[in-house]
Queue: 4 jobs
Job 1
Amino acid sequence: MKLRTIGYEAATQGAVIDCLKGACVEVVIDVRAVASSRRAGFSKTILAASLAEAGIDYVHLRALGTPKAGRQAVRAGHVAEMEAIFEAHLQEPEAQLQLAEALDIARERSAALLCYEADALHCHRRIVAGRLAQAETFEVEDLRP
């Protein structure tokens, strides 16, 4: 089974949706703490509606998002600091529940974890994908729109 990740940092909404469709993704799991965006088409409501039009479901799991301190660390180029903050955050009960929910979704349907950063190596979604891959035999594929 494949678990995909995708970042929309340098892409249009149309390019992201085309990429998801090309990979046969059935559901997008939004792992942003804040599901709003300055980039056109990527705020929660419009993104969910546009994905639905393309036949792709949308789920927002806010507790799998990076806390504010982690987002600030990665913006400053401190990826290791973000990772430490996020790993600690993943120990919280709500994050554990939503990690289990993401696992259930990904077991049942072709899923992609969505966040902002184009490069998964600098994004917490890589950590989420890694946790899911530890629990299930997923091959993780980072999509690039």
Job 2
Amino acid sequence: MYSGINISQTDARPMYLQIMEQIRARIAAGDWAAGKELPSIRALASALNVSVITIKRAYLDLENEGVIVTRHGKGSFVADVNGLAGELKDAQLEQHLAEAAGIGRQLGLSEDELAARLRRAWKNNDK
């Protein structure tokens, strides 16, 4: 484990996607603020027992998404983008709601029944 990043061998997704998802989650949760230096590619690869290419792919994709920035000779850092953490949380919420809607359909719930369950979960979360 390195900085709260774990690779699951039982997860069907490629390792680089697992790494990307966990880095996004740390940023969305506010654990990693803008400007925070990420572990070097080699250090993270060694800590997670994965290839340097795997980490490099994850970092490159995150950089292309604007989640991180890489400064040649300095390392990789959480991007200093206003509202990025909020956008990541919003995207995460949308994903969970889509999954909940899919499960609701599988269970044969109507839209109103699913909405009622969401309201109940909302109220229970206040306790």
Job 3
Amino acid sequence: MVLLEAGKLPHRNFLSIWKLPELRGIEVTPQHVILGALTTYTEIRNSEIMMREFPLLCRAAAETGSVATQNRGTLGGNIANASPAADSPPALLVYDAELELVSASESRWVRYHAFWIGYKQTLLRADELIRRIRLSRAAPAWQHYYRKVGTRRAQAISKVCFAAAAHMDAGRVADIRIALGSVAPTVLRAVETEKTLRGEILTPANLRKAQEVLAREIAPIDDMRSTARYRRRIAQNLLAEFWDLLST
């Protein structure tokens, strides 16, 4: 609707998929939680299992727009829009989400990290819809961190969006996942930063090293919302906040 009103989309007939029951519902299995593409942000926030096992996605849902937006906006729509500044994609990357894409002839599952192929470009073909989003249920020992930095505390497009989760074992980072939005042409999984931290203990020197790697791994730009220099520094500061959380 934003693009349409800005004159960047031609006026033509549009088809609403709002009432398709096949795209709705939250399914829970022993291994996965599966969200229909039309699951709204409000439904995500109100889901007990989502709050308990996927808090990053619930936090992202709470940060998205206004209450009206959360009541109507859907997870599948946020994914299909493919904005690198969207609030839910970093959380989806941390949870290693999978997407089911369907057409009249077939359905296929793709990893979310492979779904993006460029700025506002995805693997979604012209004859396909996003049907479901599948999340693997993780052990409860993971610690989660989400932070959106914007001009205002609500209804703002992010300058930097940071999501992360880590599993600690005897003071060492046994496993870690970090993802960011608004710092590259696509939402970014910071795999090199993760490699730098995985297996390490929580020391200031290791944090500084990881911050240096993160600064090289992201590719922020100057635009109307912020500067590349600011975004890079904020990303490093958010990593430090996550580090402090793991240290407590």
Job 4
Amino acid sequence: MGRIAGSYGVRGWVRVEAPEAALADCRTWWIGGASYPVEQVKEHSGTLLAQLRGLESREAALKLKGSKVFVPRDALPKAQEGHYYLADLVGLEVVNERGEALGVVKRWIFNGAQDVMEVAGDRTHLVPWIPAVVRKVDLLQKRIEVEWGADW
């Protein structure tokens, strides 16, 4: 859901880079195998600033620097129509519009411009997650249809 980039101020606040939008609404964060109740959250210049219970000093906050932030799945809101949690797409079969199987979604890469699916099959495909390429997602059939050549 994000990564602790460092401390903010001297009272134990942390700065979270690359936060998922839903992170600010979650009341408990898991960092380094420990749970931290969230006291306050503020958005600031594309990051989140958070005061977590149990972190009282800058030094305590800095000990978490570089750690990933997780939340329990049931703490997340239901995805809206046409929106997906990327973790739900890992393992789905990817086929092109001609019915050729490209493989399955192995993981996600974030390149700054868009999300990219790493699709593992006979060869690895890096498929951008953009409307011009992704044509249909069917979670029930566990399938993603894309406009992408098998030899690209």
